[in-house]
């Protein structure tokens, strides 16, 4: 009864959370997980002008399990088109196998 | 000297942490990682009655590296049987390759 | 335009963050993500002498997307050589496919 899925991971700036959640919901995903994150991207700094390391978790990592790769790509394309010209961010996918969930 | 492993991921409500850790320990896993998390599941809300986004990390994400898929399935089955009728949660596995560890 | 990558994951003690970031930078990686973490390793306790669960996130999880497996191995080898005799830690890699990023 397990189900192959794509795990889409989005790491970007915290202030984008609500807008990204809206994109995820509208794509039809059944859920997502948000975690605090810091780090450094290829521009060396976040848009705030300083790197965030240690206890300064000014970024977020969002994970979305999607039933197929197409939904993951669609969400990623929309996020990149809307935000990645102006904000730091990266999206990637990994394979996952869902074991138990409410109604995944 | 690397070792193929299964990474079991459990995202659920924070109040279950101690009971889940007990299940992980009893299954013989050598360790686990716990992270704060928020998000939304397929029931739309957590059992607290409200979604948790932003700085409200009322959930946890637990990762367990197991030497084989069977141990990951056993832990997941036990957690789902004990808690997922009453609490929000999801479990999934990913492939991982352990490079360095104390005694993994 | 997606790109296969290796995701290197390092879970270790928070006090090592700056030194590990230096190793990542010197290896030529374009970025990394840092998250707060707790947990238990195969030594049962962290070097502080007590397990960290619940809200006690005294460890960190660092994720580095590298363009190839060799760079991930090089970073992992360096971290293990410098720190894993004295500190708790584990490193592992997963496959990932980068969808969008600034200049990954």
In a few lines, what is going on in this structure?
Three copies of one chain form a homotrimer. With 104 residues, the first copy, chain A, is α+β, with helices and mostly antiparallel strands. The first copy, chain A, has helices at residues 17-26, 69-83, and strands at 3-13, 32-40, 59-66, 89-101.
Output the keywords.
2 helices; 104 residues; homotrimer; 39% strand; Alpha-Beta Plaits; alpha+beta; 4 strands
Structure commentary:
Chains A, B, C: GO terms for molecular function: enzyme regulator activity. Chains A, B, C: InterPro entries: N-reg_PII, N-reg_PII-like_a/b, N-reg_PII/ATP_PRibTrfase_C. The structure is a homotrimer of 104-residue chains. The longest helix of chain A is centred in the C-terminal third of the chain and has 15 residues. Chain A is built from two helices and four strands; from the N terminus they run βαββαβ. About 6% of the residues of chain A have low confidence. In chain A, 24% of the residues lie in helices and 39% in strands. Chain A starts with a strand and ends with a strand. Chain A has one domain: Alpha-Beta Plaits. Chain A is α+β, with helices and mostly antiparallel strands. In chain A, strands 2-3-1-4 form a four-stranded antiparallel beta sheet, with helices on one face. At the A-B interface, helix 1, strand 2 and strand 4 of A face strand 1, strand 2, helix 2 and strand 4 of B.
């Amino acid at each position: 009864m397990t189900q192959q899925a794509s795990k889409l991971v989005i790491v970007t700036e915290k202030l984008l959370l609500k807008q990204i959640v809206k994109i995820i919901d509208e794509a039809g995903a059944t859920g997502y997980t948000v975690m605090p994150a810091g780090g450094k991207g290829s521009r060396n700094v976040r848009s705030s002008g300083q790197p965030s390391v240690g206890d300064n978790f000014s970024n977020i990592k969002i994970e979305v399990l999607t039933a197929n790769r197409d939904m993951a790509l669609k969400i990623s394309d929309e996020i990149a088109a809307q935000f990645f010209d102006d904000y730091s961010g990266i999206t990637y996918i990994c394979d996952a196998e869902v074991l138990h969930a409410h109604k995944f």
